[in-house]
Design goal:
Largest sheet: 2 strands, antiparallel
Structural class: mainly alpha
Helix content: 55-70%
Distance between the termini: 53 Å
CATH architecture: Orthogonal Bundle
Number of domains: 1
Radius of gyration: 17 Å
Number of strands: 2
CATH class: Mainly Alpha
Strand content: 5-15%
Strand order of the largest sheet: 1-2
């Protein structure tokens, strides 16, 4: 008889169009609210809502927040540099999609 071990993973599926509050984004990305506010100020992520208490972040903010944190932690890049890098990565992705559409 073999000993089978199973690992159960629990998670939440977040739709790209669904939104997260500031506290939810902080919890999911394991960052402080001050860090998220700095990301907003640099234009790395854009919340919906006028006041901080009304901010609602699209699901894609999770990916951008995690990428920003990783760029800073791994490469020591400041937030202004992170904003430029993420903008350029978005442009590369867009160009790849356009190129894919042009190929037979």
């Amino acid at each position: 008889m073999t000993n089978n071990e199973f690992e159960i993973q629990v998670g939440v599926i977040i739709d790209v169009d669904s939104g997260l509050t500031l506290s939810q984004l902080c919890r999911v990305c394991a960052v402080h609210a001050d860090y998220v506010i700095e990301l907003v100020e640099e234009g790395v992520i854009q919340p919906h809502g006028e006041e901080i208490t009304q901010w609602y972040f699209p699901g894609l903010s999770i990916q951008r927040t995690r990428k920003a944190r990783r760029l800073q932690a791994d490469l020591g890049i400041n937030l202004a540099g992170v904003a430029v890098i993420l903008e350029l990565l978005d442009e590369v992705d867009s160009l790849r999609l356009r190129l894919k559409d042009l190929q037979p």
